């Protein structure tokens, strides 16, 4: 509603915006002054912050939006399944899977990393970026996924 030029947002929208900005803040802290950005895995407190804090914030965000997800069965560990497959990979529901599995690395187009707020959050997940302009991109992506899958737990799972 508009009241004398002031836009009043519903409480749910304010809560969603707050959670997104909080996720951006934690992602920014975790990647601040990170050496070898994107070429070396996050370790220690940085990795734990991404896995716990962003996972919790994402779950809370979806709860606020009205989603209640229950996991049946056991989620495969990093050593059991270094690569997770999410299908059909066509909507924001992939973020639910990411939150439930501890924020694994994702495969994403390189252009997504420059998106305000979401780009920083995405970068903190250490994505395998695919460049649509690079003719060798497919080969490079397969090589990177293979390298991460064979890293014996140094890199997060890849979804």
Model description:
With 159 residues, this protein is mostly helical. It has one domain. The chain is built from five helices and four strands. A two-stranded antiparallel sheet has the order 1-2. Strand 1 and strand 2 form a beta hairpin. Helix 1 runs antiparallel to helix 2 and helix 2 packs across helix 3. Pfam families: Acyltransferase. This is PCAT2 acyltransferase. Keywords: Acyltransferase, Lipid metabolism, Membrane, Transferase, Transmembrane, Transmembrane helix.
Keywords:
159 residues; mainly alpha; two-stranded antiparallel sheet; two-stranded parallel sheet; 4 strands; 6% strand; globular; membrane; Plipid/glycerol_acylTrfase
Low-confidence stretches: none
| Main beta sheet | 2 strands, antiparallel
Overall structural domain count: 1
Q: What is the rounded Rg?
A: 17 Å
Order of helices and strands: EEHHHEHEH
| Total number of beta strands | 4
Mean pLDDT: 85
Shape: globular
Work out the helicity level: 40-55%
Could you give the order of strands across the largest sheet?
Answer: 1-2
The total of helices stands at 5
Structural class: mainly alpha
Domain Phospholipid/glycerol acyltransferase: 69-155
Keywords: Acyltransferase, Lipid metabolism, Membrane, Transferase, Transmembrane, Transmembrane helix
Family: Belongs to the 1-acyl-sn-glycerol-3-phosphate acyltransferase family.
Organism: Pelecanoides urinatrix (Common diving petrel)
């Amino acid at each position: 509603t508009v009241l004398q030029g002031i836009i009043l947002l519903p409480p749910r929208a304010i809560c969603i915006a707050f959670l997104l900005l909080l996720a951006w803040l934690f992602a920014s802290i975790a990647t601040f002054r990170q050496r070898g950005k994107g070429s070396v895995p996050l370790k220690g407190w940085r990795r734990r912050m991404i896995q716990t804090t962003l996972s919790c914030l994402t779950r809370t965000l979806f709860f606020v939006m009205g989603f209640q997800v229950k996991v049946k069965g056991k989620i495969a560990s990093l050593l059991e399944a270094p690569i997770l497959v999410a299908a059909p990979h066509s909507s924001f529901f992939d973020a639910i899977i990411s939150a439930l599995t501890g924020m694994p690395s994702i495969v994403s187009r390189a252009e997504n990393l420059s998106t305000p707020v979401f780009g920083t959050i995405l970068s903190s997940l250490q994505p395998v970026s695919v460049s649509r302009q690079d003719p060798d991109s497919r080969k490079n992506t397969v090589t990177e996924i293979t390298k991460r899958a064979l890293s014996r737990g140094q890199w997060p799972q890849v979804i």
